[in-house]
C-alpha cells in the first residue's frame, strides 16, 4: 500500500488568470513508490484497433480537402493515445487568426503535437471559430474550455452558451473539438458544488451528444479530495483532464526525482476513474520561482534545467504511462510560451526555445 499522503497548500491567483494548487502527494520516501516495479509488457492491440495512419489527429493523417459528411471512423480511439499529446495554450491574449495558425503549425510540425488544450478565456466574438480554423488547417485536435475565472461571477454561463453555439453551427467544430473542459479547477475554487458540477457535466454531454464531443473537468486531485472525492463528477465525465504540478509538493526536490509524486497522484485517480482515459493537461515544472509560484519544500528547485528534466522524466517513464488504464496516459506540456504563463513556457519571452524539446509520442 502507498504510504500516508501529505496535504500541502500551494494556491495562488496572479496576473493573466493563472492559478496554482492545493495538491495531495505521497511522501517521497515511500518505499512502495520509490521502488515501483517495472510494468509488464503491454498487451497487443485489440484486433479492432484503428491504425493511427487512418484517423485524426494521428501525425501522419492527411486532412481531407473538405469537411466530411459524418464522423464515423474520424477520431483515433483514445486507447491508442498516450505519451506527448501537445501543448496547453493560453488564450487571454485573444490571438489573431494569423498568430493562431502560425503557432498551431509550430505545435504540429516542430513538436509533433496532436492536440492543444485551451487555457484561460478570450471573449471576442468569433474567437473559437478562429481556433477551429487554425486547428483544421494544421491537423490538431482541441480540448476546448469553459473558463470560470476567479471572481466568483456567472460569466462562465455566457461563455458556455457562446462555445456551444459555435460547436453546433461551425461545420468543422466536431471534427477538431475532441472535448470540452469545465475549468480550470472549479472544484478547488468552489465555483460550484460537486453535485451541481456533475449536473452541468451531464447536461453538457446531452447537449453535445449529437456532435460526439466529450465533456470533462480540468482539475487537480485535491479539488476532488476536498469535496469528499467528488465521485459523482468522476462518474459524470467522459475522460479526465488532470493537473500535475509536482514542484508544489511538500516532497519536491528536483524534477528528476519527482516520479514518486507523479505516480502517487496517478494512482489516486486510477483507483476512482473506472477505466476512463486520463490526460495530464496542466502539467509541468517552472523554470523560475516568484510570488504565486513558490515551492512548499525547501529542496524544490525552479530553473530551466529542472523544467527540461521534468519532461525528460515523463519520456523516461513512457513505458509505465503506456500500460496504465484506458490505453495509457497522454500528457500536455504546460505551457507553450513564457508570454502565456511566466516560467512554464517551452519558449521564452523572445520566442526562443529554452531547451531542446523533442518528446516521445510513442514507445
UniProtKB/TrEMBL annotation:
Residues 1-17 form the signal peptide. GO terms for biological process: cell wall organization; polysaccharide catabolic process. One of its GO terms (cellular component) is fungal-type cell wall. Keywords: Carbohydrate metabolism, Cell membrane, Cell wall biogenesis/degradation, Glycoprotein, Hydrolase, Membrane, Polysaccharide degradation, Signal. GO terms for molecular function: glucan endo-1,3-beta-D-glucosidase activity. Its EC number is 3.2.1.39. It catalyses: Hydrolysis of (1->3)-beta-D-glucosidic linkages in (1->3)-beta-D-glucans. It is a single-pass type II membrane protein. It comes from the Eukaryota. InterPro entries: Beta-glucan_modifiers, GH. It is found in: Cell membrane. Belongs to the glycosyl hydrolase 17 family. PANTHER family: GLUCAN 1,3-BETA-GLUCOSIDASE, GLUCAN ENDO-1,3-BETA-GLUCOSIDASE BTGC. Glucanases play a role in cell expansion during growth, in cell-cell fusion during mating, and in spore release during sporulation. This enzyme may be involved in beta-glucan degradation. Active on laminarin and lichenan. This is glucan endo-1,3-beta-D-glucosidase.
Amino acid at each position: 500500500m502507498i504510504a500516508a499522503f501529505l496535504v500541502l497548500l500551494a494556491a495562488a491567483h496572479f496576473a493573466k488568470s493563472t492559478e496554482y494548487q492545493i495538491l495531495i502527494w505521497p511522501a517521497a520516501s515511500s518505499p512502495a513508490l520509490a521502488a515501483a516495479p517495472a510494468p509488464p509488457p503491454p498487451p497487443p492491440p485489440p484486433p479492432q484497433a484503428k491504425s493511427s495512419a487512418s484517423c485524426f489527429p494521428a501525425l501522419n493523417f492527411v486532412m481531407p480537402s473538405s469537411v466530411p459528411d459524418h464522423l464515423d471512423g474520424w477520431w483515433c480511439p483514445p486507447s491508442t493515445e498516450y505519451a506527448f499529446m501537445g501543448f496547453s495554450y493560453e488564450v487571454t491574449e485573444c490571438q489573431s487568426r494569423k498568430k493562431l495558425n502560425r503557432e498551431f503549425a509550430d505545435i504540429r510540425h516542430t513538436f509533433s503535437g496532436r492536440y492543444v488544450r485551451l487555457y484561460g478565456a478570450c471573449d471576442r466574438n468569433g474567437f473559437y471559430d478562429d481556433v477551429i480554423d487554425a486547428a483544421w488547417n494544421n491537423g490538431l485536435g482541441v480540448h476546448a474550455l469553459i473558463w470560470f475565472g476567479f471572481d466568483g461571477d456567472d460569466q462562465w454561463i455566457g461563455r458556455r452558451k457562446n462555445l456551444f453555439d459555435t460547436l453546433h453551427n461551425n461545420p468543422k467544430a466536431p471534427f477538431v473539438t475532441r472535448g470540452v473542459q469545465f475549468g480550470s479547477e472549479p472544484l478547488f475554487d468552489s465555483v460550484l458544488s460537486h453535485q451541481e458540477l456533475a449536473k452541468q457535466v451531464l447536461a453538457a454531454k446531452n447537449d453535445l451528444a449529437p456532435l460526439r464531443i466529450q465533456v470533462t473537468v480540468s482539475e487537480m486531485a485535491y479539488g476532488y479530495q476536498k469535496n469528499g472525492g467528488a465521485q459523482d463528477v468522476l462518474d459524470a465525465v467522459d475522460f479526465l483532464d488532470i493537473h500535475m504540478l509536482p514542484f508544489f509538493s511538500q516532497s519536491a526536490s528536483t524534477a528528476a526525482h519527482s516520479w514518486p509524486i507523479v505516480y502517487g497522484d496517478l494512482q489516486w485517480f486510477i483507483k476512482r476513474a473506472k477505466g476512463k482515459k486520463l490526460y495530464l493537461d496542466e502539467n509541468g515544472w517552472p523554470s523560475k520561482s516568484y510570488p504565486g509560484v513558490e515551492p512548499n519544500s525547501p529542496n524544490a528547485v525552479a530553473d530551466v534545467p529542472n523544467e527540461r528534466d521534468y519532461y525528460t522524466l515523463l519520456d523516461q517513464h513512457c513505458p509505465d504511462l503506456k500500460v496504465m488504464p484506458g490505453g495509457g496516459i497522454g500528457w500536455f506540456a504546460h505551457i507553450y510560451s513564457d508570454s502565456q504563463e511566466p516560467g512554464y513556457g517551452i519558449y521564452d519571452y523572445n520566442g526562443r526555445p529554452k531547451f531542446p524539446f523533442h518528446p516521445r509520442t510513442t514507445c
